[in-house]
Amino acid sequence: MPFVYLMLIIFTLGFIWLYLQTSEDIPKVLAGLTGIACLIWGFSFAHWSVQILVVFGLLRLYRICLPKDVELSYSTSRLNQLNQSRGLASDRTLDLSNRQL
Description:
With 101 residues, the protein is mostly helical. It is built from 4 helices and no strands. 68% of the residues lie in helices and 0% in strands.
């Protein structure tokens, strides 16, 4: 099975290289889509520990490349502003703990 991983990585890199080298529209789109398909296929075949490393690596890369003024998630004050702009009360919560069947 490790040969399949290596083959898919080589195919992915080859198709991405072809995507970057060609100037024609249809071959460029086909090379890009095939490269992405091989990358997803290789990721799905990989061992779970490799998948976790790839996901954490992408998250770290995303945080490094992210500008300082962009937040990854909404803060509670931003959610309250959105609720007020939609006419929703910010103190309204859904409490299902006291419901009886």
